[in-house]
Amino acid sequence: MADSNQGTGLQLRSLVKAGGELELSLAKVPIPQPAEDEVLVRVEASPINPSDLGLLLGPADLSTAEVRGVGEDTVVTARIPPQLMRALAGRVDQSLPVGNEGAGVVVEAGASPQAQALMGKLVAGVPGAMYAQYRAMKAADVLVLPPGATAADGASCFVNPLTALGMVETMRMEGHTALAHTAAASNLGQMLNRICLKDGVELVNIVRSPEQAKLLTDAGAKHVCDSSAPGFIEALIEAFGATGATIAFDAIGGGRLASQILTAMEAAAVRKAGGAFSRYGSTTHKQVYIYGGLDTGPTELMRSFGMAWGLGGWLLTPFLIKIGQAGAARLRQRVADELKTTFASHYTAEISLAEALQPAIMAGYNKRATGEKYLIRPGKA
Amino acid sequence: MADSNQGTGLQLRSLVKAGGELELSLAKVPIPQPAEDEVLVRVEASPINPSDLGLLLGPADLSTAEVRGVGEDTVVTARIPPQLMRALAGRVDQSLPVGNEGAGVVVEAGASPQAQALMGKLVAGVPGAMYAQYRAMKAADVLVLPPGATAADGASCFVNPLTALGMVETMRMEGHTALAHTAAASNLGQMLNRICLKDGVELVNIVRSPEQAKLLTDAGAKHVCDSSAPGFIEALIEAFGATGATIAFDAIGGGRLASQILTAMEAAAVRKAGGAFSRYGSTTHKQVYIYGGLDTGPTELMRSFGMAWGLGGWLLTPFLIKIGQAGAARLRQRVADELKTTFASHYTAEISLAEALQPAIMAGYNKRATGEKYLIRPGKA
Questions:
Q1: Model pTM?
Q2: Shortest Cα distance from B357 to chain A (angstroms)?
Q3: The pairing of beta strand A295-301 with beta strand A253-255
Q4: Whether B298 and A293 lie within 8 Å, measured CB to CB
Q5: How many CB pairs under 8 A join A and B?
Q6: DSSP H or E stretch at residue B215
Q7: How far apart, in whole angstroms, are the C-alpha atoms of residue B302 and residue B259?
Q8: Which end of chain B is more exposed for a tag (fewer CB within 10 A), N or C?
Q9: Exposed (0-12), middle (13-18) or buried (19+): which is A206, by Cβ within 10 Å?
Q10: What digits encode the pLDDT tens for the residues A182-229?
């Protein structure tokens, strides 16, 4: 505490240079002084989520990564394919901090009673710039972790939990009664499966391998469709018929999966109606939201699903704005209450800030492999 | 009137046979007896809209068309490619009447005062099955044509006028302030241009040839972008920047045009904001509604437009249900008031029911060429 308003802390920075180079480094930045309504957090754990990788690595070719320096002075560079630079115009030559969320200890607090009440507490937050040793946050925005929870328990308690809860909330708000999810064996997907089992919401889990299907079935999932299996479309139609799912959240984005989902939902709706032919298709509205881009290729829609359909982007922040402060607080409270059960995250590696800049480790967390998840420990030497 | 509850009338029928054949014929059906709240209309004019062609011709290969019989006994058949039969399963072996809308004279009326008040009036309606000599309609659903209007003036006063008005209404209901339209030189597009000019709504007209661009510019359109011209995308970005259009209605469906529209809207939003980089793109919601399928190929989305976007189907009937009876009545009244100005339709050919079954004429109306529009005259010999 005493040294928090002097001294400096490390902060991971991502820089895209106009010449087509990505540079990651550790900046030594002054430890922030919390404003009246803020607290200063010593960050103890921050996860590498898929949603962090875009800002962290951009579309750099990691096979070209080169390191110079060691420890705090580590700098890693990698080439960015020239044709991909256009999309990065908005961030060129800006040294950007990274890391959406994390947890740590409040080591200093602003004068407000709300801030003062947090002194010494273990809290989590999602202010961005969390791949750092210190971060100031609004006292109103932090979540005090429940007794017995560690920083690792709370590090991922915003992005994935609120996204999974947001999917179920969106389902209800838009008048659907069951939902589907792709890349469903992900950390987020497992969480969504636990939420749906607990809440009695029917969920169609769409995965890409028998191993992922088994993981979910073992976790109690009732409806699992494996796109690598023969008869996938027929299995989808049956699962949509059995559950009535008419909304899906898609982490993949590219290819024909969204189109297949809409087509299978339409086929299930037509079977259920069993009625007269309409060349405009059923009147059942079918919705797919793309919230990730595991496949960055184009989305191809065959439009073989009538006229009552929608496809769109889905993002956590606008959703939280839409449900308002009270709605967001209700979801946050649920996350805190079920932190070690429904919303438990498991990490396969814990790394320091400097280790996050080592090419072999970068290749590991950039694989986005199901079941692998990295946790940055900014206090680790 | 005297003979309307005896005798028969001709009704065009479209039949898809399980063997993969389309058959069009003229059925001799009993002239309907209007129910208490109905009127019987002697149909004088009914247009062939793009929205009629799907039901009328399906995906038949007209180059294989063969005719037998003449006059009222004309029957035309054509092959349907086997791979397209699956999508037609719902209509196989059903002899279906065709023709969404039209106008004619009330020759008999049910007992209700509302129906009786329509006796002898020239009315328009959109009950379906209008490629026929007689059609019973709900009295509450017909539009009495204004003095001086002919059946040809009123034949197309539902589908295109209400669709064009529905686009502007949808724009307002969803919080947008300007809109874009593709295949914008169509009969519908010209109507939309006149509505927007009259109402002071900014419209970006997207066309596919210099001739179509000239047609709209000559009609007073301010923003016309020709996808066949070099610099099309930049022209789109500038038009979206100038108008603030963030919603588009797309008649084409297939290919990359919807994606290009979203990308250009996003680029215009980013230029306007001129702010910090966000890898999730702007917060401006961009929407494209596909309401037609001039290109039946897949829709390809490059997803280079951030996360705040939507794509969906748009159809007139659910829109009219959404705005309710009062809303629909308001739009219908406007159509009646401006029938010979804003909502004027022009026909390039008038044909009898039997002529609609002649292959050379079928090829003509199936071209869906901009500026060509066919009117069926069921009373014509």
A1: 0.89
A2: 21
A3: parallel
A4: no
A5: 91
A6: helix B210-218
A7: 6
A8: C
A9: buried
A10: 999 998 999 999 999 999 999 999 999 999 999 999 999 999 999 999
